[in-house]
Amino acid sequence: MKKLGLIGYPLGHSFSKKYYLQKFENEHIEDINYDLYAIEDIQNFQHLYRHDISFYGFNVTIPHKLTVMQFINELSAEAQEINAVNCIKIRREGDNIYLKGFNTDAFGFEESLKPLLKPIHQQALVLGNGGAAKAIIYTLKKLNIPYLIVSRTKENGDLTYEELKQIDLKDYQIIINCSPVGTFPHVQDAPDINYEQLSTDHLLYDLIYNPAETLFLQKGKERGAVIKNGHEMLILQAEKNWEIWNNEE
Question: Residue 65 catalytic?
Answer without folding.
Answer: yes
